[in-house]
Amino acid sequence: MKALRILFPLLFCLTLSAQPQQNDVANKLLGAWRLVSVEGISPVRHIPYDHPTGLIIYDKSGWMSVQIAIKGERKPFANGLGSGTQEEKATAFDTYFSYYGPYIIDLKAQTITHHIKGYSYPTSAEINNIRWFEFQGNDRLILIPTEDGKGGTIDRKNATYKLVWERIK
């Protein structure tokens, strides 16, 4: 009985200490972040980035949104916004993507999972984008996709594709 009196408060304290850490990470993630750089090439999309720009937002309700222009300088359509040629439209489509949906943080795995509900690329399947995350100080966030391009997960130490984000103040 004495052991239970000691064990129960200890377990209770451990449970309480885990929740604030989850909240600390969630609070640190909240807000808008601008894309600073992309390192490496995605093993899934095989797209070379050329001065990319982007924005990712995490909010308190547990939803996120991301937009990335793969080539920083995007040419406007020659004849105006609604009058792009097939080639102009294809280029615009191929050099920009966005998605949104709820997200979940897994502290043990050090991952954020983006449960995609809406995507700029047509798809009928719900997609889960899993990203390892690292904070560098309070204002820099590194997201490292876990996908290996073959339907599996890359070993984190071998991951070379990284997106570097900076908090917008």
What does this structure look like?
By secondary structure, this protein is α+β, with helices and mostly antiparallel strands. It starts with a helix and ends with a strand. It is built from 2 helices and 9 strands; from the N terminus they run H-E-E-E-H-E-E-E-E-E-E. It has helices spanning 2-29, 86-94; strands at 31-39, 53-58, 63-69, 96-106, 111-116, 118-119, 127-136, 140-145, 162-167. An 8-stranded antiparallel barrel has the order 1-2-3-4-5-7-8-9. The protein has a single domain (30-167), classed as Lipocalin. The longest helix has 28 residues, at 2-29.
Offer a few descriptive terms.
Lipocalin; 8-stranded antiparallel beta barrel; 169 residues; 22% helix; globular; alpha+beta
At a glance:
This protein is about 20% helix and about 35% strand. The chain is built from 2 helices and 9 strands.
Gyration radius, in Å: 20 Å
Largest sheet strand order: 1-2-3-4-5-7-8-9
Q: Helix/strand-derived class? A: alpha+beta
Number of strands: 9
Stretches with pLDDT under 50, minimum 5 residues: 10-18
Q: Any guess at the CATH architecture?
A: Beta Barrel
Largest sheet: 8 strands, antiparallel, barrel
Individual helix count: 2
**SSE pattern:** HEEEHEEEEEE
CATH class: Mainly Beta
How far apart the termini lie comes to 54 Å
Under CATH, the topology can be stated as Lipocalin
How is this fold's topology laid out?
Elements: H1 2-29, E1 31-39, E2 53-58, E3 63-69, H2 86-94, E4 96-106, E5 111-116, E6 118-119, E7 127-136, E8 140-145, E9 162-167
Antiparallel strand pairs: 1-2, 1-9, 2-3, 3-4, 4-5, 4-6, 5-7, 7-8, 8-9
